[in-house]
Specification:
The protein has helices at residues 3-22, 33-47, 54-81, 86-108, 112-117, 123-137, 143-158, 165-168, 172-181. Helix content is 75%, strand content 0%. Helix 2 runs antiparallel to helix 3.
Length: 183
């Protein structure tokens, strides 16, 4: 068996891990089983009148269509160029990775090496969270506003860097759990 098949399998694993971690496990780009299950679940909810996750349905259907079109394009590319058809994917994902590094580098004012390896400090996130906590403990914002602000902040930072910001910073899960119990 050609070594390119093993490299393609490894590349699929890396691609799936990257897309999963940057989309909070919503998007998996190398297999369709979970996507089709999620589409069915959301369609069932919509038929019962629950349209809360309707936006996810559009994302998942778009992903399924893209997956199908990509599979067809890959079939014809492999027929024509054999294993060399993987060079297109390698180039595409190299550009996407370089774009992610560039984005993180410019948005966080860090070195390119830190952006490429994910070794920078999220002190700004901790400062924002502590500011929100101070407003909450001083009674300036409601519990629900505080929780919403914290989760929006984490979502904003999670999309840039896959790290559990609530567990790794001074605010901690206990403060959020205490706030939840006050609802």
């Amino acid at each position: 068996m050609c070594v390119s098949y093993y490299l393609a399998a490894a590349a699929n694993g890396l691609q799936n891990a990257m897309s999963s971690s940057y989309s909070a496990n919503l998007i998996r780009t190398t297999h369709l089983t979970g996507t089709s299950t999620d589409i069915g679940i959301i369609l069932g909810r919509v038929l019962r009148g629950n349209k809360q996750d309707l936006w996810k349905l559009f994302v998942l259907v778009g992903l399924a269509v893209s997956f199908t079109l990509g599979g067809l394009a890959s079939f014809y590319a492999v027929q024509k160029w054999k294993e060399f058809s993987l060079l297109f994917n390698a180039g595409l994902f190299t550009l996407i990775g370089a774009g992610c590094v560039f984005y993180v580098w410019t948005q966080h004012d860090i070195s390119i090496a830190q952006a490429a390896t994910g070794t920078w400090s999220d002190e700004h996130t901790a400062e924002e969270m502590n500011h929100g906590l101070a407003k909450f403990t001083a009674g300036k914002i409601s519990t629900s506003s505080f929780l919403l602000e914290m989760f929006v902040m984490c979502d904003r930072h999670e999309m840039v860097r896959s790290c559990p910001c609530l567990c790794g910073h001074r605010l901690g899960l206990q403060t959020l759990l205490r706030a939840c119990s006050m609802l």
